[in-house]
Description:
With 452 residues, the chain is of the alpha/beta class.
Amino acid sequence: MKGRWLVHLVGTLVxxxxxxxxxxxxxxxxxxxxxxxxxxxxxxxxxKKYYREKTGEEVRVRWRDLGGGSSIEKAIEATYTATPKxxxxxxxxxxxxxxxERQKSHGHLKAFRLSDDALNRIxxxxxxxxxxxxxxxxxxxxxxxxxxxxxxxxARLLNLPPVQTxxxxxxxxxxxxxxxxxxxxxxxxHMIYEIVLQAYGWEKGWSTLYRMGANVRSFLQSxxxxxxxxxxxxxxxxxxxxxxxxxxxxxxxxxxxxxxxPEGVSVINPDSIAILKGAPNFDVAKEFITFIMTxxxxxxxxxxxxxxxxxxxxxxxxxxxLPDMYEGNLGELLVPLNPFTLQQSFDYQSKVGSARWAVxxxxxxxxxxxxxxxxxxxxKAIIALPENQxxxxxxxxxxxxxxxxxxxxxxxxxxxxxxRAGRIRNQWMIDSVERFRVLEAEAKERLKDxxx
Length: 452
């Protein structure tokens, strides 16, 4: 019996070899990414072709679905805590800029230097952000802008006031017509709130965030969901990263929806890529990053669907990081502007934003998102008053829970001392609910007195 089994096994192996089926395992690369389906599909398809032509071998791309950038970061950090040598993933692809600075500081990124030819084509920085990390631990793979998607028809039909800036989204007449995401789920959503704080300053920034938050229908779990609400006509405006806004604009047409970047109060920053420490497929990971950072990979971001070297199924509409690709007619590309000719309107402090990332997430969560029922009730009562009777209530409504200096101090222990952070976080929620309860009662009392 044993002899017949061995003969069968040997015969099977001979058939496999003679039949031309390779016995060794297929090469692969494992990627954690918040990028949407279109980016994953197009980069996988093009990379497989690039790898086959370069090496003569097939490669498998495995995408780990861990949620948005913030969720991915939490999963990676939890895995490294349990198994410090590796998280079992090769590449972190997308999720902004600050995420990569933090992961570098934690020692979670593996340095990889591109070839001199590739590096000579990439500027080391753009608008104050590194496209090439000085230690070669991460690279800017595309550029992202942050703005507002408007449903033009809905805004016109409802005669809503014009919106040009983040601050405009806090106008009382927009109550219930704004859509937004939860920064604890998405790095690109988080970035918008940090931009508001840095563009307007801490005090005015929080006043703007509170008013915007009060106008939001509900805070959604993914970065793309708010733009889908606007596209469906369930909301008139959404705060969003450019790729989500421009995707809806391209699909529905500019006469129906328009994406724009608020002038003077937004930034353009790199969306990065890096190899993770202990990458199980380091050699293939190097090839993937090389592919993304050179013309074949960058063409996927910028070229129209079906163009030579461009995407074959999904138009991606991202700004690339190679200046020479912007030469000529931008109308032939899916990008609205040349980022290398822009002047930054204010100095975005990436290290400040990165350091207080988790604190801001919880301030938004406990001060606005998780108490939105109380927030909206207070706001509704306040804006029901005549304008000359609500200024003081609005000032108290938009007051930050803590000072900017306190946020800086909390950031030093926030991720490390979870018990202490938890106590503070719970107190923020208690304070917020009480503040909104008192404001709602005062506003209703004033309106009652006015009626009498």
